[in-house]
């Protein structure tokens, strides 16, 4: 059992860091003090330096990275500048942003055992730690699996388990749950919080989805352009909502709702919001509300005019997988028409990425048929669809191999011998807000910037069908909106996997819910999310605003709709 020592565990003084080859520093005088047992949420716009800061804590920067480093970091009693990597990693566990950068063993068991082995525990103790850590992340059944056979969310669970098996004094986590389903996210964050409380493990966690994290954090720190510009207790963080809005960060729906209604309150849950709204004062005020400023219809209400068009994709009884003895997709029937924006949701490992790979003709069906643009994929070479389908992998790094973002975006148009390459590249880089980074080496961009580079490389071929595997992970609000608005305004046919129900409700014309390789629901978002049994089966939850509407006894699917519903109802009708 760890011994609590009390006091300051992380102390960063005037930290500056410039990556090799860059003229501008990425960290510009960071000062931060964290006490033992604190749970600190670190957020900020994409590319502001969060991952860079985390890498300085476990010594990767500067010990492995090179570059120009100045300032002091004292962590769990040692100075990182004077200590070697082994000494630092005994104290600090870093969960990487990209699980593929962290995982290097071939089996799950070896991966999780690696840390305790290095700490020289006896074999029975190592086995016990592996078992406990896998149990904590819900992966006990995968102990002997190959790490290559894991889905994105399963890989993230293994990365967390590897760190939990060591029980370091400080756990630095870089978007550790970004690819996890909502139920899994909550379970794992509960576990981390429990360890934080019981064992006083200090947590510094980077995340954009504040609504998922706020119930767990003690303190919120915001970075912008390499500096810490905000540091507040979690309970007071949203008193300065303008900071979040100005930086384009996502604000939890209950807080955004209260703000829109002009109520000064920061509830995190639907229940707390209901308590805030269920006051005489509020009910009295609703009498005078007629039209709220800045409310605009955003949620998608229909699958629109596409119902009669020819399907672009037609799938009949599809069985598919990586091994013929273990089918992943089991009897999928699906049609997708031009202009639809389909969100694919469901538990980690339920087969979403595998379905997307089938839609991209990267698999041949084991049983059943897949027709893309009317052509049966069995009789076609996948390359014959080049230029017509654009696919972005869950891990964008798998598709970035050029020397600059600009070259990435021009690769497809060059291969397809388009004439207007320059124009296509510019439009796609601008659409993803990375035109200013066009000369940068993709590997030297932040995760959010790399993901947008990968999307730009697909947009530049202007494909008929766009397939994106979790395109919103690790992005701030502004970038998510910009990307999804682009597809919406262009009328793209888009299929995207996501665990983000709020984004799916805002941008998908249709939601598919998967469970154990089957589609268990398929319809308009507002119909799908009413079915609590389906949501539970697929590890999903209703968006907070819908839960709040349920509490109030009204029908609304977005903040806008809820505000307008409240405005047009007599307060007595609201079932408070
Ligand atoms: N290896 C590298 N070489 C050069 N520059 C880099 C490197 N890694 C990151 N940078 C630059 O440092 C800045 C901060 O990147 P970092 O990954 O720390 O941002 P972030 O806040 O974690 O972003 P995100 O939310 O997208 O993950 C970015 O502008 C990026 O281009
Ligand atoms: N390359 C592979 N080889 C063997 N099995 C695999 C491979 N990739 C995925 N699987 C297995 O197929 C199943 C479905 O994986 P898939 O990646 O399609 O799930 P997912 O729903 O996209 O999950 P996530 O939400 O975690 O991304 C999982 O049980 C996974 O272990």
Automatic annotation (TrEMBL):
GO terms for cellular component: ATP-binding cassette (ABC) transporter complex. It is found in: Cell membrane. InterPro entries: AAA+_ATPase, ABC_transporter-like_ATP-bd, ABC_transporter-like_CS, ABC_transpr_CbiO/EcfA_su, ECF_ABC_transporter_ATP-bd, P-loop_NTPase. CDD domains: ABC_cobalt_CbiO_domain1. Gene3D superfamilies: P-loop containing nucleotide triphosphate hydrolases. Keywords: ATP-binding, Cell membrane, Membrane, Nucleotide-binding, Translocase, Transport. The keyword Transport applies. The keyword Membrane applies. It holds the Pfam family ABC_tran. GO terms for molecular function: ATP binding; ATP hydrolysis activity; ATPase-coupled transmembrane transporter activity. Coiled coil: none annotated. Residues 10-250, 313-541 form the ABC transporter domain. Probably part of an ABC transporter complex. Responsible for energy coupling to the transport system. Belongs to the ABC transporter superfamily. This is ATPase component of general energizing module of ECF transporters. It comes from Methanosarcina horonobensis HB-1 = JCM 15518.
């Amino acid at each position: 059992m760890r011994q609590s020592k009390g006091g300051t565990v992380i102390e960063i003084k005037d930290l500056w860091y410039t990556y090799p080859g860059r003229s501008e520093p990425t960290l510009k005088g960071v000062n931060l003090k964290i006490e033992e047992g604190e749970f600190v949420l670190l957020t900020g716009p994409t590319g502001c330096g969060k991952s860079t800061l985390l890498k300085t804590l476990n010594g990767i920067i500067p010990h492995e990275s090179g570059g120009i480093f100045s300032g002091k970091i004292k962590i769990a009693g040692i100075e990182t500048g004077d200590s070697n990597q082994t000494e630092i990693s005994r104290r600090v566990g870093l969960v990487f942003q990209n699980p593929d950068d962290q995982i290097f063993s071939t089996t799950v068991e070896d991966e999780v055992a690696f840390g305790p082995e290095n700490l020289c525990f006896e074999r029975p103790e190592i086995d016990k730690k592996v078992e406990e850590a896998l149990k904590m992340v819900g992966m006990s059944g995968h102990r002997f699996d190959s790490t290559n056979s894991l889905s994105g969310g399963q890989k993230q669970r293994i990365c967390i388990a590897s760190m939990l098996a060591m029980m370091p004094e400080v756990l630095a986590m870089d978007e550790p749950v970004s690819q996890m389903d909502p139920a899994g996210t909550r379970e794992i964050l509960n576990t981390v919080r429990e360890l934080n409380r019981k064992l006083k493990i200090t947590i510094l966690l980077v995340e954009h989805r504040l609504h998922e994290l706020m119930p767990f954090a003690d303190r919120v720190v915001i970075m912008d352009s390499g500096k810490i510009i905000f540091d507040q207790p979690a309970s007071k963080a949203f008193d300065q909502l303008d900071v979040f809005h100005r930086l384009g960060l996502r604000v939890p729906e209950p807080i955004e709702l209260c703000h829109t209604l002009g109520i000064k309150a920061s509830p995190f849950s639907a229940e707390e919001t209901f308590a805030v709204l269920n006051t005489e004062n509020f009910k009295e005020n609703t009498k005078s509300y007629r039209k709220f400023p800045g409310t605009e219809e955003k949620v998608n209400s229909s699958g629109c005019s596409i119902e009669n068009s020819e399907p672009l994709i037609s799938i009949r009884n599809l069985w598919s997988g990586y091994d013929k003895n273990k089918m992943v997709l089991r009897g999928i029937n699906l049609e997708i028409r031009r202009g639809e924006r389909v969100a694919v949701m469901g538990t980690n490992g339920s087969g979403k990425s595998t379905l997307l790979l089938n839609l991209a003709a990267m698999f041949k069906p084991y049983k059943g048929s897949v027709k893309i643009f009317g052509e049966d994929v069995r009789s076609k070479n996948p390359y014959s669809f080049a230029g017509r389908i654009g696919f972005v992998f869950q891990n964008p790094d798998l598709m970035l191999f050029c020397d600059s973002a600009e070259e990435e975006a021009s690769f497809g148009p060059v291969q397809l011998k388009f004439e207007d390459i320059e124009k296509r590249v510019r439009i796609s880089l601008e659409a993803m807000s990375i035109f200013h980074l066009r000369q940068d080496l993709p590997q030297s961009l932040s995760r959010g910037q790399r993901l947008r580079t990968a999307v730009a490389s697909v947009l530049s071929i202007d494909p008929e069908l766009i397939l994106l595997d979790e395109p919103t992970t690790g992005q701030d609000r502004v970038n998510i909106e910009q990307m999804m608005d682009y597809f919406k305004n262009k009328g793209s046919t888009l299929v995207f996997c996501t665990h983000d129900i709020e984004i799916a409700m805002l941008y998908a014309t249709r939601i598919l819910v998967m469970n154990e390789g089957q589609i268990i629901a398929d319809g308009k978002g507002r119909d799908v999310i009413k079915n609590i049994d389906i949501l539970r089966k697929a590890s999903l939850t209703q968006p907070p605003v819908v839960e709040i509407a349920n509490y109030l006894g009204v029908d609304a699917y977005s903040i806008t709709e809820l505000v307008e519903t409240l405005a047009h109802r007599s307060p007595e009708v609201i079932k408070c």
